[in-house]
Amino acid sequence: MTAFEADLERGAIRRALRLARDFERAAHDVPGDITRTRHLERVAAQFYQLAAGLLPDAKSKRRAGLELKSMNLESAARSRQTEAERAAGIRSRAAGDAAVEAMHRRRERQVRAELSDIGLSETQIETALARLIATPRFLRVQVQDAAGGSFFGLPTANPEEAVPNLGKTGWCEPKAFCPELGCTNPRIVLDDGTVIWGYQCWWAEIEEPAAKP
Questions:
Q1: Lowest-confidence pick of 3-7, 56-60, 140-144
Q2: Cβ neighbourhood burial of 178 (10 Å; 0-12, 13-18, 19+)
Q3: Which DSSP helix (H) or strand (E) runs through 174?
Q4: Rounded to whole angstroms, how far apart are CA atoms 123 and 169?
Q5: What mean pLDDT do residues 70-83 have?
Q6: 108-126 b/e with 16+ CB inside 10 Å = b?
Q7: N or C: which terminal CB in the chain sees fewer CB atoms within 10 Å?
Q8: What global pTM score does this model have?
Q9: Residues 76, 42: Cα–Cα separation, whole Å
Q10: Strands (E), 68-168
Q11: Torsion of CA 164, 193, 86, 24, to 10 degrees
């Protein structure tokens, strides 16, 4: 290696290290933004790895130190990603629970109005609602993959709305009013909070040890 090439290599190492440290400091400056911190840590790890790869064999100890630094940053980034995914899952489940609770309230209002319209007293309405609450109001269902199947001899396919939700489970209100159709249709609230209608997917009732809404 010529002196000029050696100078270029040393300059590249210094630049890679400077960028790695800059990105690492930037990651520490945004502790509340998990996504940005994770991204900056990964970029810093890549620059530390680049600097380690440029170091000559004679500096193996320093190379090992930079590789360890890179691995620690990658590990921290993965931990933050897991944390972010866990938080997103909690938010999705909360959204799903809220949607199911809204289904409860809406159905109770509908039944109360219908019973009131036919002239039942408040006591009779409350008795009817109590009986309704004591019976299952929703079905535990799963969105099915219908690709390649058949229905009464006709080939089936997955509607566009169903494709990203194949295999997901949720609660189905069999006779909900669908504004798009202007009539009743099964309304399914998936466990991740997504709402999909019966006409938009193939679904089936399932049994699993899950708490009823």
A1: 3-7
A2: middle
A3: strand 169-178
A4: 37
A5: 76
A6: eeeebeebeeeeeeeeebe
A7: N
A8: 0.37
A9: 9
A10: 139-144, 150-151, 154-155
A11: 70
Q: How far apart are CA 68 and CA 18, in angstroms?
A: 17
Residue 211 confidence (pLDDT) above 50: no
Q: Which residue has the tokens 């199947």?
A: 149
What are the domain boundaries of the chain? 3-87, 90-205
Q: Residue 142's pLDDT is what?
A: 92
DSSP, res 201: S
Distances from the Cα of 160 to the Cαs of 166, 176, 196, 204, in angstroms?
11, 21, 11, 18
- 6 burial via Cβ count (<10 Å: 0-12, 13-18, 19+): exposed
Q: How confident is the model at residue 206 (pLDDT cuts 50, 70, 90)?
A: confident
19 membership: H or E segment, kind and range:
helix 3-28
Pairing of the two strands 150-151 and 195-197: unpaired
Q: With the C-alpha atoms ordered 90, 94, 99, 100, is the resulting torsion angle positive or negative? A: positive
Q: Is 159's pLDDT higher than 80? A: yes
